[in-house]
Amino acid sequence: MQTPPNSWLPLEEFRITPEGRWETRGRFGSHSEWFSGHFDECPLVPGVALLSLAVETVIRQALGTERILKISGFSRVRFKHLVFPDEELVISVAAMTQDPKAELDFYLTCHGEPVVQGLLKVTEEICF
């Protein structure tokens, strides 16, 4: 699925894994606005940016379906590793169930190491 580029949330290579998970890749370039004022001496990707990648993965995957999915929150989030500019991230989210509400497990990895994991609270907006 082609989506317009987004410098704030630079995701690419959307796919569904053989296990049915939604997966994307992303990389925050060294000139990304996310680094503005966020530790100029040693820039780090902010946690909120990492969580936004998981949210955006769900939203963009839903674009290819008839479903409108909304994220209502997170739970059990654990940050495990720092991410620096230009490091490639792999974002993996469990696919939405047939139920209108679900908690989808997600995780991000960098160089094969876990970066953040948790649950996304997702609801389907029903339109009549």
Unreliable runs: none
Query: Which band does the percent of strand residues land in?
Result: 35-45%
CATH superfamily: Hotdog Thioesterase
The top-level CATH class is Alpha Beta
The shape, in one word, is elongated
Keywords:
single chain, mainly beta, Thiol Ester Dehydrase, Chain A, 1 helix, 128 residues, elongated, six-stranded antiparallel beta sheet
Short overview:
This protein is mostly beta strands and 128 residues long. Helices cover 12% and strands 41% of the residues. The longest helix has 16 residues, at 47-62.
Give the topology, please.
Elements: E1 11-16, E2 22-27, H1 47-62, E3 68-79, E4 88-93, E5 101-110, E6 113-125
Antiparallel strand pairs: 1-2, 2-4, 3-6, 4-5, 5-6
How would you explain this protein's 3D organization?
The protein has one helix spanning 47-62, and strands at 11-16, 22-27, 68-79, 88-93, 101-110, 113-125. It is built from 1 helix and 6 strands. The mean pLDDT is 87. The chain has a single domain (11-125), classed as Thiol Ester Dehydrase, Chain A, CATH 3.10.129. It has 128 residues and is mainly beta.
